[in-house]
Amino acid sequence: MSIALKERIYAVYEAFSAGKFEQLSEMFDEQVDFESNAPIEVFPYLGRRLLGRAEVMKALQAVHGEFDPIVFVPLRIISDAAHSAGVIVSIQLTQRTTKRTIRLFAAHFLRFHDNRIIEYRAFLDTFEAVEQVLGRELDLREKR
């Protein structure tokens, strides 16, 4: 993996964690394709495919509207060249309304072109995330 790619990846997470949206916006291509497996019922701003920088930035700002502080720490970065990477991320969020701390891990897959993200896929343990956001365990046992 090139040092430049690693530095770009760290810069993305640092800018997002700090809420530096102007800086973050410049890291995404105008036509970025962004998708997260987050359940739309709990994370309406993430649980769908987002196309274009403006839509992505609106969603990321919504995350900051619900959670503060936000800390994203890349734990492992695996790259196939200077243009794509898989990242295991440690995430810690504090829900503004409840002050509840949410901790989880995610896998992010990023593709770059001209030093900007053109494709972003995020996968997380959605069951664990929903339980933490709701502040209770979900009982999925069949009711008889």
Task: Give an account of the 3D structure.
This protein has a single domain, classed as Nuclear Transport Factor 2, Chain: A (Roll). Helix content is 31%, strand content 41%. The protein contains four helices and six strands. Strands 2-1-6-5-4-3 form a six-stranded mixed β-sheet. A hairpin with a 5-residue loop joins strand 4 and strand 5. The model has no long low-confidence stretch (mean pLDDT 88).
Give the strand content: 35-45%
Mean pLDDT over the full residue set: 88
Ends apart, CA distance between termini: 54 Å
Rg, nearest Å: 16 Å
Please state the structural category. Answer: alpha+beta
When the domains are counted, the total is 1
List descriptors.
alpha+beta, 4 helices, six-stranded mixed β-sheet, Nuclear Transport Factor 2, Chain: A, single chain, 144 residues
Give a concise summary.
The protein is of the alpha+beta class and 144 residues long.
Describe the SSE topology.
Blueprint: H1 3-18, H2 21-25, E1 28-36, E2 49-51, H3 53-66, E3 67-79, E4 84-95, E5 101-113, E6 116-124, H4 126-134
Parallel strand pairs: 1-6
Antiparallel strand pairs: 1-2, 3-4, 4-5, 5-6
